[in-house]
Amino acid sequence: MASVDRAEGTQRAATQLPNPNALALCRDVVLVAHGVAEPLAGKRERFTEWRLLAIDRETGREAWRVVLPVEPVFDGISIDRAGRILVAGADGSVICYGKRPNCRPTPSDSR
């Protein structure tokens, strides 16, 4: 993923995305649901953990991350108009991150 200065047409920052499963664009960050891989025999790998990662759009640096309780479905991230982050789980669950009731707080909520 790369951040480009529109006026200058130059690249500001670049970040390698680790095994992305879902992406969502927010005002200040790009959200990436990704798996943490463990190599297996041959070229195969197994995901041992799933994470939701926020990457700062200006700097390309990690803003925060949380471990997801389940594997997310492909393209299973959305943001509602209140700013809550919804992640659809492969087991049929929906995980909500945000400041509202019934949502888990994200690390940025404590700032």
Describe this structure in words.
The chain is built from no helices and nine strands. The protein is mostly beta strands and 111 residues long. The chain has one domain (2-110): Lipocalin (Beta Barrel), CATH 2.40.128. The strands form three sheets. The protein has a four-stranded antiparallel β-sheet with strand order 3-4-5-6, with no helix packed on it. A three-stranded antiparallel β-sheet has the order 7-8-9, with no helix packed on it. It has a two-stranded antiparallel ribbon with strand order 1-2. It is flat.
Mean pLDDT: 79
Main beta sheet strand tally, sense and closure: 4 strands, antiparallel
Determine the number of helices (DSSP H or I, runs of at least 4 residues). Answer: 0
For the record, the CATH architecture stands as Beta Barrel
Strand content: over 45%
CATH class: Mainly Beta
- Give the total of beta strands: 9
Shape: flat
> What's the gyration radius in Å?
15 Å
User: What is the spatial order of strands in the main beta sheet?
Assistant: 3-4-5-6
> What name is given to the CATH topology?
Lipocalin
What is the domain total for the residues?
A: 1
Give the topology string: H per helix, E per strand: EEEEEEEEE
Structural class: mainly beta
Unreliable residue runs: none
Distance N terminus to C terminus?
26 Å
Considering DSSP H and I runs of 4 or more, what fraction of the residues is helical? under 10%
